[in-house]
Amino acid sequence: MSVSIYYQTKEKPLTRVENAKEIPSEATIIWYDLNEPTEEESDELLNRFDFNPLEMDDTIHVNPRAKYKAYENYQNVVFHTISPRDYEIEVLNIFIINKILITYHHNVIREVNEVYKQIKNNYDKDLDCEDIVLYMLDHIVDNYFYYIENISDKVFTFEDEHGTDRTNKYMMDNIFDLRSDIIKLNRVIMPMKDVIDTLQNESQLVQDKRHKMYIQHITEHIDKEESMLQTARDITREIRDNFESYTSFRMNRVMQILTIVSMIFLPLTLIAGIYGMNFENMPELKWHYGYYATLVIMVLISLGCIWYFKRKDMF
Length: 315
Description:
This protein has helices spanning 39-49, 53-61, 110-121, 129-162, 171-201, 209-275, 290-311, and strands at residues 2-8, 15-17, 29-35, 67-70, 75-82, 89-97, 100-105. The chain is an alpha+beta fold. The protein folds into 2 domains: 2-247, CorA soluble domain-like (Beta Polymerase, domain 2); 249-311, Methane Monooxygenase Hydroxylase, Chain G, domain 1 (Up-down Bundle). The radius of gyration is 36 Å and the shape is rod-shaped. Keywords: Cell membrane, Ion transport, Magnesium, Membrane, Transmembrane, Transmembrane helix, Transport.
């Protein structure tokens, strides 16, 4: 568990303190960063700031969907980051109450640390909580590029190596693995795109011109990422469809050959069946050349069937 407390004033850059009592009254930003807080600390947060109990229950016990919601005295925004281990969703829950910013997460979120360093190293006396939220959103969206470019490189490499290879029996397993990763990324990107649209068009978070320009910059990035994911998904679908079409063609070809073989042997089986019957009165069985004549007839029938099927381009 870790609770970090920061503040900033017009004269002093972002500073960390051990206790909220150390925060001066002239602070323009107060930032509480909670990483894996205990249930008691979460309850204290709920009681101190009068948050919606249902909202806090989602924050504490489940992974809420990416969203933005404005209440009477505070705003709540949920961002989704990507786990570098397995492309799964990690949740960053943010509350904004005037000059107070609360970030709540159950895992270490590297974007939070990146924004802290950015603010620490680039002091801006006019910084506000909305700026910090947009900085975090920008870092989150920019970090998506790493994962999307990684999966795109895998897809393009796979296409170069196996685009014309239709004999690799493990190819479909690889395709399904790639598509699984694409789906995981898409589960993060699409809800976040909706949140960004909401922030841009309907939120109290983006009001002045500076914020609107910044959110437009973020929107362009996530639109590009969506396009890259769509391209990767289309390529894997085309490779999969080509492989399935070729597999289906090969199966049909095998069935066609088996059918032709069956058709050739059908009259031969009929002849063998007739002469395999145990009737006593079959005069041709007494003929000295009967056996050889039967073999010749069977060969001629086979050759005739082969000629006919060849003429019809059946093989």
